[in-house]
Amino acid sequence: MTWRSPLALVREALRGQRAREKDLRNLGSNLPYEGLEKVKQPNRFFPGNAIKTTKYTLLLFIPMNLFEQFHRLANIYFVGLAILNFVPVVNAFQPEVALIPICVIITLTALKDAWEDFRRYQSDRKLNNTLCFIYSRKEKKFSERRWKEVRVGDFVKVVSNEIVPADLLLLHTSDPNGVCHIETSNLDGETNLKPRRAVSDICISDPEFEPESFNSVVVCERPNNNLNHFKCYVEKPDKEKVGAGIESLLLRGCTVKNTDHAVGFVVYAGHETKSMLNNNGPRYKRSKLERKLNIDVIFCVILLLSMCFMGSVGHFLWLEEFPGVPPYLVPDSNGHLESHGLSGFYMFFTMIILLQILIPISLYVSIELVKIGQIFFITHDADLYDEETDSRVQCKALNITEDLGQIEYIFSDKTGTLTENKMVFRRCSIMGTEYPHKENAIRLAVLEGPESESGEEVIFNQRPQPPQTGWSLHAEDTSLEDMQHHYDNRHKSMVTGSAPSDVAFSSPLETEVIPDRKLLQHISRLESSGSRKTDPYLDFFLGLAICNTVVVSMATAERQRASGFSRTGRTNNPLDTLSNLVKKPFSLHHIFTSWKNKPKRSGTMSEDSVVPEEDYFNAPVKIDGSGNTDGLQTCSLQAPSHSNDPAMTPDNVTYEAESPDEAALVYAAKAYGFTLLARSPKSVTVRLPSGEDLVFEVLDTLTFDFNRKRMSVLVRHPITKECVLYTKGADYAIMELLSTPYAEHLRGKQKNIAADTQHHLDCYAKEGLRTLCFTKKVVSEKVYESWIDCRQRALAAIDNREELVMETAVQLETELTLLGATGIEDRLQESVPDTVVALREAGIQVWVLTGDKPETAVNIGYACRLLEEEDLVINMSCKSKLECTSILDCTLEEVRRYSEDPRNVDTSQDIALVIDGRTLTMALSADLQDRFVDLAKHCRTVLCCRVTPLQKSRVVKVVREKLKVMTLAVGDGANDVNMIQAADIGVGISGQEGMQAVMASDFAISRFKHLKKLLLVHGHWCYTRLANMIIYFFYKNVAYVNLLFWYQFFCGFSAATMIDYWLMIFFNLLFTSVPPIMFGIMEQDLSAEMLLGVPELYRTGQGAGEYTFTTFWVSILDAFYQSLVCFFIPYLAYQDSDIDVFTFGTPINTIALFTILLHLSIEIKAWTVVHWVIMLGSVALYFIVTLAYSAMCVTCNPPSNPYLILQSQMADPMFYLLCIITTVVALLPRYMFHVLRNSIAPSPLVQARRLDRLDTSTRDEWMKEWRSFRGLGQVRRSRLSTPHSTTLETPADIYPQSPTASDIMADDLTLNVITENYQRSVHM
Q1: How many CA atoms lie within 13 A of 375 on its CB side?
Q2: Cα 969 from Cα 409, distance rounded (Å)
Q3: What is the predicted pLDDT for the residue at 583?
Q4: CA–CA gap between residue 1094 and residue 1266 (Å, rounded)
Q5: In this protein, which residues make up the domain named P-type ATPase N-terminal (predicted)?
Q6: 851 is known to lie in a ligand binding site
Q7: 412 and 544 in contact (C-beta within 8 Å)?
Q8: Please, are residues 1245 and 1086 in contact by the beta-carbon 8 Å criterion?
Q9: Bond into 207 cis (ω within 30)
Q10: Crossing angle (nearest 10°) for helices 536-546 and 660-671
Q11: Residue 2 among known ligand-binding residues
Q12: At what angle do helices 73-84 and 361-379 cross, to 10 degrees?
């Protein structure tokens, strides 16, 4: 190794720092420099792949850990006092003794930190020594190396089912199309496969990639923690730039699937990889209770300084009373005595040392232990375990458990949080004609039968089905109830839509679609007529099958997941019965010819297309009897396959989508015979109902983003050879881009396709369905060539790449042709209405922040009981800031006028506010923000619709800061991360959208219903336990310290003590340390059943809660009283006797122990064996340790020694009499206060505890009666009159009868008020 001067090393380090801080990095291959020393390596400035997550090293552990622990002011305080005790003029007792408490605390903390760091070291070592394949130029092959040997610029080969060791730019895969599938569950929890494709035109040595032929330069951005974005381009030797993005990056920690092998170029390694940059460890937040605690500690410091000042002044006055020099004052070596003033000054510091435990040193450690115990009980609660996903609640923020008991506002996402995020295809509209899919609705209704195990609800199917809804094949009088009765007799166990499946979005509920009879007939006529080249109906289904990012895989592929159903075995699903009933041996030709005489329907949604007909389908339909991946049979238009290749069999195809919407649409297209068979970066294959396979060349994919609210796929049609752009997206994002040439060839009402489709979309939204529009555009070759040049430049850009790419997408997505729209149902989660009602009864206001349409949000609001039938619903949809101002002013004026009316003293308004994103932006502006918050404060619930992720977080911050309330945000997707991080507590739901929300959250649950017990039970317990424990800790320390303070009045304020120093230390360190910790972990003031049955009990923790300024000072005053009693009763008993100082102090110490422990016994509400063992064990430990110490301590504390003091005391009856009388007198006021308060004016908690002691049946009856009584006596509901304002352009409308959601959301209205019952009709 060549010696280098220190100056050269410094220069090299500075160059490396500059290289790492550059916005762009130029990376070259390491192969030409293999074997050379490090200084000659081109990528030497970038870190290696070895990771180190430990905080300490073996040599530096002690100084680094001490430095970290001394960041706590409490530790610095006690160490400072221990050092001060070494100064002779101010020391209170033996210097070594003063070090014991702080040394014990620091040592225990250091051992805990060492164990945690050792576990991190073991994990790092295991990961760094994992084997991988790195290409070696000397060996001419990929050789096994360890992960820690990977460097930036290396070529790494990853085989199937292996984890990627570093961030790799994908250059080559075993797939001919250059595709590699990865699973990112280690990063974001998503189990669906994601395709990654190799950088185009780089690999020139197919079929085997030769890394030595790679002579390009990779230019990439600086490392960042964004998992969804990556800027890079590859510059070839001829200076041609090939752009690459996140679609070509294999992230460290991902697993390669469905690909034999992949070769990548290392761009980031070690701590610069995106996964490591996202590894921030547990979140730290300071709880509301902890902030109050810090204030009370300051009060204790003030109290301590006051007592020490009194001691200093008292010592000065004591000395001044002596006419001469007291004989016990010893002069220094020079014979001089200190002045009285200086002695008083020194005594101030001595008193601080003596009374130091007034500041509770062990409180912070005890709080940490209590929170660990609370988290253990939360995470091991069986009611919070989800069997379907095999997941339990996770606590990521370890220090805010008590905040769960103080929540006042909950901000919730809708999709995936209140709903299942299991998308079910329900209806569609094509070219202005609506197809209600009544047959499929029957199937879903059957799955919702009384024997169904799913327990899920169809959102828009809240009312009973019509009794005469016939659907049989040959008779028209068979009702749905009759058929369900038939199923109940035949099937005792049903396989429902909620059956777990390991394949994403592939339960029978989502995958099985029974086609609409009329639409099926229309598609068949088109197939038979051969007009599939330009027909919009076929284009619609091609759009469903093509316009997505669904990954197609084989059921027999390498990554085969365990399926919940056998492909050949029979199941007891009701769908089998339905299929068997309609299965007849008729040809497709006979089926469709039997429908030729059916009357045609108009282009708009007619009445018979909304309300179920009596005759659903009377003609037989051919059933695809071949087993599919779920073992179920469905009505379809599949033609028999003529290929023996299993890869081309639709029944063997499985789909994995990044979102459930895409999966539902692909399965819907498959039900009509348009089967997505294969997808690669360059092509997509669709099988038509006729059995013909169409292979579309994929020219480009314009992915979805939150700004455009749409995605597009540009393909070359295999028949017409035209460039066709298929686009899908939200209706408001699509409608403004339309141009409908199809309408030119239509007649009558069908000409206004856009208006009819919009009407259907509004009806879908009323039913709570999620809507999407589908369009088509034929792009000329000239336009395509011009556009693709701009596209390539945008993709190769580094600066503003996202903006440029989005501009090219917007440039192409114009003049679109509307094909149709779809309505997909997102089913409500189990027990959501019950949870919402319980939370509102608990005094928590629930807001919903969603990106859906207002109509959909309102429907979901009624379904989950956020909105009640008697609620006053105010809709704010403003086009200008003036309108928004007028609505806020007039509504607030009406609210104030109502509250000031003396006739409304005992009433409150049940108001709900519905506001869209555009109006919300105006309402959150600086001049309207206070008015909006004031209005929202009077609302029971607020629904914010069409909001962006940034708007969600803004709403949470504004409400939290303006109202000074505790907030909780709950969501399940990446768009909820900002909201979750903005709230005091963030809760992530591990649902269908991955784990981004969970990773950013403080707590993670698997179902919204778990929020009920998490808050109402565990939140209440955690808060009351910790609040009462902290108050008890302050009381305990003040009561004990005051015993020493009262003694100073009788010893000249000389800082002498009547208790042995060791016993003083043991008192807080051993004898009274465990009971309060046990109290904080195991106390239950009420049972879980009572807290869930009476949610109003949760209100006790909201606002100021139980830990208030008053409760703190009352406990301090009680401590002063008890210390006076514990000191002066023994003092009076032994007055004028000749006992020594320790004989006087030992009974006081014993009485203090009994008083402090019995004080805690009064506060304990639920006694268990653990309580008895710890309480009695503390008393036994005191006597054992004190007896042993007094027996062994002969000369350990000269000149006074506690030798056999306790033994002689226990032989004296006076000792026992003092212990009994003094303890009773000390605790009598507190006991009497509890008795009188609980008897004369019992709180709701006390009343609930009385009910809790009854047997279960009696308690439940009393609980129902009490709830009904409290419900009648709480608040009378009222309705608000219409606000009147002369400034409004359009007067506010009042709906005198059942309004529809579309009426509520009319565009020309600025304010709508609903005052009557909201009824939802059933649409099939």
Answers
A1: 17
A2: 8
A3: 37
A4: 9
A5: 43-97
A6: yes
A7: no
A8: yes
A9: yes
A10: 140
A11: no
A12: 150
What tokens appear for 1066 in the block? Answer: 């043991």
Residue 975 annotated in ligand binding? yes
Q: Tell me the sheet residues that pair with 684.
A: 679, 696
Amino acid at 1081: I
Which is it for strands 261-268 and 249-250: parallel, antiparallel or unpaired? Answer: unpaired
Count of positions (residues) in the chain: 1324
The 3-class SS string of 1159-1204 reads: HHHHHCCCCCHHHHHHHHHHHHHHHHHHHHHHHHCCCCCCCCCCCC
Q: Which two tokens stand for residue 139?
A: 């060996």
Cα separation, 961 vs 954, in Å, equals: 11
Distances (CA, A) of 1037 to 86, 1041, 1071, 1318: 24, 6, 13, 60
Beta strands in 114-231 (DSSP E): 131-136, 141-146, 155-159, 167-173, 179-183, 194-197, 217-221
d(CA 139, CA 141): 5
State the Cα–Cα distance between residues 503 and 917, nearest whole angstrom.
35
Annotated ligand binding at 662? The verdict is: yes
Structure tokens at 218: 């990779």
Cα separation, 92 vs 821, whole angstroms: 84
- Indicate the DSSP class of residue 816: B
C-alpha pair distances (Å), 401 with each of 19, 382, 492, 741, 1166 = 44, 18, 44, 60, 21
pTM: 0.71
976 is in an annotated binding site: yes
Average pLDDT over residues 128-148: 92
Chain-centre distance of CA 19, in angstroms? 38
Give bridge partners of residue 849 from the DSSP assignment.
944
Q: Annotation-wise, does 952 bind a ligand?
A: yes
Sign of the dihedral defined by the CA atoms of residues 401, 404, 409, 412, in that order: positive
Nearest Cα neighbor of 1157 from 1141, 1174, 1142 is 1174
Quote the CA–CA distance of 548 and 1019 in Å, as a whole number.
Answer: 43
The reply to whether 1255 belongs to the active site is no
Q: Which residues of 1232-1268 are buried (b: 16+ CB within 10 A; e: fewer)?
A: eeeeeeeeeeeeebeebbebbeeeeeebeeebeebee
972 labeled part of a ligand binding site: yes
Q: Given 175, 188, 413, 871, which residue is catalytic? A: 413
pLDDT in tens, 174-188: 888 788 888 876 666
Environment class of 850 (CB within 10 Å of its CB; exposed 0-12, middle 13-18, buried 19+): buried
First to last CA, the chain: 81
Whether the CA torsion 70, 72, 73, 78 is positive or negative: it is negative
438 among annotated binding-site residues: no
Amino acid at 881: K
Contact 753, 1292 (CB under 8 A): no
Has 413 been labeled as part of a binding site?
Answer: yes
| Integer Rg of the chain from CA | 38
pLDDT bracket for residue 1265 (50, 70, 90): confident
At a CB cut-off of 8 Å and minimum separation 6, what does 1109 contact?
none
Residue 100's contacts (CB-CB under 8 Å, 6 or more residues apart) are 1065, 1069
